[in-house]
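User: Design a sequence. Structure:
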């Protein structure tokens, strides 16, 4: 099964089992907008809780806020979004489809990387145990040829993006002979910049209404509340402010399911530090955030850092945490050293002093900022992508299982009476009632016990609790573990402790200490 086929199966599975639905589907949907179903919202909330607790409970010097979506329009002038929040777009004249010029080039570069890996795999098969990958990369003519071309294009693209050279971007696309995926032609328009912000009107009548924007990021809500939080919380630098909230971008090239959407949710933390100490804290937060991802157990080799060649106008250092999705390594989180750009600009545009008095140095200054910004929806897709498996069992049967980390699983346990008689359903309901105030628990009595196990495997439930006739005698139940399918007898009074030990957030958070 190819990665593309796997991704299509994952999308279908997400809909079939109530994780993610196309928005407004009865009206043929709305492009790049999705709704979370009954299991999707549980997974999403568990991811958010893991992030929130890792920020505000593990760290004594980080607090949270929830800023409004609507903000004064001057906010976005100060932040630079009104003038500079653009994507370079190019159209194919034959298909009438629009693409991001930089994404077309990034995809071309990714294909060159795939070609190199294929050549290396051929060498590995040819030379077997004597294969030396480093030497092969350094000496194989085909690998050297592809690498040289790839690096040349990458360097040209970086220079064009940094110089905002739109004609240069188009020329690279032509030189690489990149074709439209729909029409298969190279009949490209000029590259143009397109602002990504949604605007709307606020006011009682149209004539007197003012233009405001749906926020394209949550960070500015933190910056404009810097003094409010610092003073009311008596916060001392270094300290951070965390926020989870919706953001909106008019993405023309929204694609890859929920990876890039027009309405999405962000988890951002802005960490305020002394000027001159920002790069030290930048490195610290890079390591801290990578450990948060790796604690989920999806394999360290499925993560990597990607340092930015083109820095945003506010940054002096930036890197992405990338995860290996079925469609390649892509960004799930950004860590940026934003300097004092945002607070300084808001001080300038508002006319209000935004300074911090440092009692240790006796100075007043505008703090520097380290930002960690992660997409909730991309994290959902990451978890589903890493968890989705199709397995062939020893008895010849097949099962589809979501091996979601137990603390993030939408349903923590399913309670299953072996038969629908002899008082077993009543005992099963008592067990569910005993657990339901602390965990999301399902009750299922339909079909054979094997089919019920398969249904729970498909939604990622870590534990199936089977109530049988022995339960009525001694109070023990059979607990089946999802990934190993091993079964043990546990007394019903010990179920709460067992679930908390294996599926509580504490286990994940302890890894971050």
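Assistant: Done.
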């Amino acid at each position: 099964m190819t990665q593309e086929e796997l991704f299509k199966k994952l999308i279908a599975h997400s809909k079939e089992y109530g994780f993610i639905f196309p928005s407004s589907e009865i009206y043929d949907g709305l492009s790049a907008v999705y709704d979370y179903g009954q299991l999707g919202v549980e997974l999403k909330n568990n991811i958010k809780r893991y992030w929130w607790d890792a920020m505000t409970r593990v760290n004594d010097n980080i607090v949270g806020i929830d800023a409004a979506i609507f903000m004064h329009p001057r906010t976005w002038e100060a932040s630079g979004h009104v003038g500079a929040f653009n994507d370079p777009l190019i159209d194919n004249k034959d298909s009438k489809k629009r693409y991001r010029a930089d994404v077309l080039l990034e995809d071309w570069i990714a294909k060159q990387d795939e070609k190199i890996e294929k050549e290396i795999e051929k060498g590995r098969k040819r030379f077997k145990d004597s294969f030396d990958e480093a030497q092969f990369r350094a000496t194989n003519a085909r690998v050297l040829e592809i690498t040289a071309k790839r690096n040349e294009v990458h360097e040209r693209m970086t220079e064009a993006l940094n110089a905002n050279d739109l004609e240069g971007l188009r020329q690279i696309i032509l030189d690489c002979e990149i074709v439209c995926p729909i029409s298969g032609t190279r009949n490209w328009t000029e590259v143009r910049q397109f602002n990504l912000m949604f605007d709307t009107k606020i006011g009682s009548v149209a004539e007197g209404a003012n233009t405001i924007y749906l926020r394209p990021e949550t960070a500015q809500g933190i910056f404009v509340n810097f003094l409010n939080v610092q003073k009311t919380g008596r916060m001392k630098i270094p300290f951070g402010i965390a926020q989870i909230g919706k953001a909106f971008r008019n993405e023309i090239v929204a694609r890859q399911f929920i990876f890039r959407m027009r309405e999405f949710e962000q988890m951002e933390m802005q960490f305020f530090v002394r000027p001159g100490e920002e790069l030290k804290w930048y490195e610290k937060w890079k390591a801290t955030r990578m450990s948060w991802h790796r604690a989920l157990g999806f394999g360290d080799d499925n993560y990597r850092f990607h340092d930015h060649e083109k820095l945003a106008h506010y940054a002096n250092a930036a890197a992405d945490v990338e995860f290996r999705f079925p469609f390649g390594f892509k960004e799930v989180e950004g860590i940026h050293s934003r300097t004092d750009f945002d607070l300084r600009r808001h001080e300038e545009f508002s006319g209000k002093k935004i300074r911090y008095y440092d009692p240790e140095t006796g100075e007043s200054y505008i703090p520097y900022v380290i930002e960690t910004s992660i997409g909730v929806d991309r994290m959902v897709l990451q978890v589903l992508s890493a968890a989705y498996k199709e397995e062939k069992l020893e008895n010849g049967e097949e099962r589809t299982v979501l091996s979601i980390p137990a603390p993030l699983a939408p349903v923590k346990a399913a309670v299953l009476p072996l038969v629908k008689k002899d008082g077993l359903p009543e005992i099963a309901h008592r067990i569910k009632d005993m657990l339901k105030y602390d965990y999301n628990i399902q009750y299922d009595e339909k079909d054979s016990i094997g089919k019920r196990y398969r249904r729970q495997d498909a939604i990622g439930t870590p534990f199936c609790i089977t109530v049988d006739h022995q339960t009525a005698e001694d109070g023990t139940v059979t607990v089946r573990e999802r990934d190993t399918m091993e079964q043990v007898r546990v007394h019903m009074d010990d179920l709460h402790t067992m679930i908390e030990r294996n599926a509580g957030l504490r286990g994940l958070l302890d890894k971050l200490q």
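The longest helix spans residues 101-127. The mean pLDDT is 91.
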